[in-house]
Amino acid sequence: MGTIPGTRENDTGKNDTRTADPAKVDPTDGVRGDSAGPRPETGRQSRLTRKAIVSAGIEIADAEGLGAVSMRHIAERLGVGAMSLYRHVADKDTLLLAMSDEIGRRFPYPVDRVLPWRERVRVAVELDWDLYQRHPWIVLAYSSPRHSMGEQSLIALDWMVGGILELGVSVEEATEMALTVWIFIQGSALAQVGEELLQTRSQNDDGGALVDLLDGHADFDPPPHLAELAGTGARSSLIDPRQRLDAGIEFLCAGFEERARRSQ
Questions:
Q1: From start to end residue, where is composition biased (Basic and acidic residues) (predicted)?
Q2: Is residue 219 in a domain?
Q3: What is the CATH number of the domain that holds 59?
Q4: Burial level of 245, CB count in 10 A (0-12/13-18/19+)?
Q5: pLDDT tens-digit readout, 44-96
Q6: For the chain, N or C: smaller number of CB within 10 Å?
């Protein structure tokens, strides 16, 4: 999102303060029994970085879904102990925020370009749609403010707000409009990738009751207003998530303009 489309370093040093017990020191550790200190890191642990952890989390989410992301799974993938991850990432919430922000960094808004507000909205649609298709799990991550509003998201949001201010609305209203655009893109993308997220894709192309109604194959009496659509076959504009997104964005933008006109 507009999504949307790094997060600040937040290392806590957890588990980095453990010291050796003088009574249990192994001379081969190279630690003097009379001067306790941190255990030396293994080769892999010494090369462990926050970036590597975040990248591994993204790879797991892409391959297995967001639910498969855990500190233990990432540690296994990187060949290190799970506790060593906490020296770089405080907890899972911090990890998910960092993953979301990294995805936003990979799909950056052109914040150095001065574009009219409608073009900025269109940029958000194109970039965020592509982002959601490539990383479906991010739809779920972005649904939680604590996992989505990192530094990268704020940079993108600020660029969107700067354009919408052309309408003469307040910063607060412009922010509401920008967030509404993001939410609409996210909802449309969810309709596109939902089956993949739910892992319920079937062999048949059952589009549900609305598709049956439009095709004229409904086995029920349609409600009075929708009855006019029965058998029209207007599937592309009403069923296809991307076409609904494009049409809906136009409705939103028209509404923004009308709202701005009335407030002046």
A1: 8-32
A2: no
A3: 1.10.357.10
A4: buried
A5: 555 799 999 999 999 999 999 999 999 999 999 999 999 999 999 999 999 99
A6: C
User: For the segment 102-133, what is each residue's pLDDT rounded down to a tens digit?
Assistant: 999 999 999 999 999 999 999 999 999 999 99
- Is 16 part of any domain? no
**CA-to-CA distance for 23 and 26, rounded, in angstroms?**
9
> Taken in order 134, 63, 187, 104, is the CA torsion positive or negative?
negative
Residue showing tokens 């700067």: 162
| 214 inside domain | no
Domain, as residue range, for 77: 41-201+234-263
| Helix 92-106 and helix 50-64, axial crossing angle in degrees, nearest 10 | 80
Distance CA 11, CA 88 (A): 5
Helices (H), the chain: 43-46, 50-64, 71-78, 92-106, 117-134, 138-142, 145-148, 151-164, 171-198, 209-215, 235-239, 241-263
Confirm whether 120 is domain-assigned: yes
